[in-house]
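Long-time lurker. I teach an intro course on protein structure, and each term I like to show students one example going from raw sequence to a predicted 3D structure in token notation. This year I'd like something fresh instead of my usual example. Would anyone be willing to generate the tokens for the chain below so I can use it in lecture? Attribution to the forum is fine with me.
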Amino acid sequence: MNSKVFLFLRIFFGLFLIFFGLDHFFNYIPFPEMAPEANAYFQNLLSTYAMQLVGVVEVAAGLAFLFNRFGALMSLILMSVSINAVLFHLFLDPEKIYGALILLILNIIFIYQYKEKYAPLLKSK
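-- Reply from a regular --
Happy to contribute to a lecture. Here you go:
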């Protein structure tokens, strides 16, 4: 991938993650109406502070991408958040899956771009 395109995506993804990660603490995005099952599940996540942990991971990953430090590591850690967000929306709130899909697609792009960093982990002896 072109280095300027990757730089743009890295900055965009970093800002995207920081913006949505900080919302887990400051709640500046209006909470949309959800199906009862989705709302019950989400309320359970909120009551156990799991969403604050997601916010910490998103902000840390966003900073890592903005400062170009530990991006490969944060891409792997963020993949669990990405997959869970897509699965949540796919099964409980499919009308609002677009943000989760953007997160997952960008995360896959970054994992692919950092693939050479994972080679030692995947090497058999």
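Some talking points for your students: The mean pLDDT is 93. The chain has one domain: 3-26+35-122.
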